[in-house]
Design goal:
Order of helices and strands: EHEHEEEEHEHHEHEEEEHEEEEHEEHH
CATH topology of the largest domain: D-amino Acid Aminotransferase, Chain A, domain 1
Number of helices: 10
Oligomer: single chain
Distance between the termini: 23 Å
Largest sheet: 5 strands, antiparallel
CATH superfamily of the largest domain: ATP-grasp fold, B domain
């Protein structure tokens, strides 16, 4: 018999992992889903006071909410909403509304609360690297700068072999195409003559790390699901494996050394994250190099490629309401 406690999903319509996860959780608890797009177009009507939450005509006592799964809800692209002053105002008011609900339910079990997942750690590259270094994980030499002389010096100190990245994932629209900005491998000659451009926008630079394998490490609570991605077999994916359809690359279940696993668990606990997707490099010399944590990174394709039961683990944590 299904229990009366509730799991609340705050998300958007396009998340690929939600259907399978909802099916698992709804076998045990009541599930309610809020898509920000449905709020913005009036399809979903939301009300809240200090005791209850109403989703359309459904009344939910706040004390009955056991856990909340947040995934790109408050920052979702509303899609059909026009980019007018009025529409921008409405979007911001709805997001403030959801933030209010989020903090009213702050003491519930979240995967993950947007305070950590969005406000603090998402795209906060330098602070992530500092936390990893403090735990004695290997990290690349890194600088963020719009100072041409500092960038020139950084290139000289790092074998003149640099990875140029963005601090945030960007998708740009050009006519009917969606363009992504990938990691590029550069040397100092690329920056010559571009001093004016460099001064206008910061560049996120790291020493280029040679790869044997790339590792996508998904952590749920204290469970680690590690997948190796053989990006070096194809020329087009040697620098950034996202440039090709992921299903064209070999994925395998990978067992991390125990000391690396312990450090990664400690890292995400310091960040107060229940779910995280971590990118690392295994070098030809056998070193494990930490790159970044994505608090809401995708995992569905990993399950399909490897059979790792990430959805099952997330569902079990939401049902339990604790680690």
């Amino acid at each position: 018999m299904k229990r009366k406690e509730v799991v609340l999903f705050i998300t958007n319509k396009n998340e690929p992992c939600l259907d399978k996860l909802t099916e698992r959780v709804s076998s045990e608890l009541c599930v309610f889903r809020i898509n920000i797009e449905d709020l913005l177009d009036g399809t979903t009507l939301l009300s809240v006071d200090l005791k209850n939450l109403w989703i359309n005509s459904e009344k939910i006592n706040l004390n009955s909410i056991r856990s909340i799964f947040y995934r790109r809800g408050m920052t979702a692209n509303p899609g059909k909403v026009k980019n007018s002053l009025q529409d921008n105002f409405i979007q911001k008011e709805f997001r403030a509304f959801l933030w209010s609900i989020g903090f009213l339910l702050r003491n519930r079990f979240w995967i993950n609360h947007p305070l950590e997942a969005v406000s603090i750690y998402e795209n906060n590259k330098l602070f992530q690297l500092k936390l990893a270094r403090d735990l004695e994980l290997k990290i690349p030499n890194t600088i963020i700068s719009n100072n041409p002389s500092k960038i020139d010096s950084f290139c000289n100190k790092n074998r003149n072999d640099i990875a140029v990245k963005t601090m945030k994932t960007h998708f740009l629209k050009e006519k009917n195409k969606v363009l992504a900005i990938y990691t590029n491998r550069m040397n100092k000659s690329y920056f010559d003559g571009r001093e004016k451009e460099i001064k206008k926008s910061p560049l996120y630079l790291q020493e280029y790390i040679e790869k044997f394998l790339e590792l996508r490490i998904t952590i749920v609570g204290k469970e680690i699901f590690c997948c190796s991605i053989d990006s070096q077999k194809k020329e087009s994916t040697k620098i950034d494996w996202r440039k090709l359809d992921l299903y064209d690359l070999k994925h395998e279940i990978y067992t991390l050394p125990e000391n690396i696993s312990r450090k990664l668990i400690r890292l995400v606990r310091k960040m107060n994250l229940i779910y995280s997707a971590i990118d690392m490099i295994l070098t030809p010399q056998g070193d494990y190099v930490f790159l970044e944590v994505n608090p809401s990174g995708q995992y569905e394709w990993i399950e399909k490629m490897t059979g790792l039961e990430i959805t099952k683990s997330i569902a079990e944590h939401l049902i339990k309401g604790h680690i």
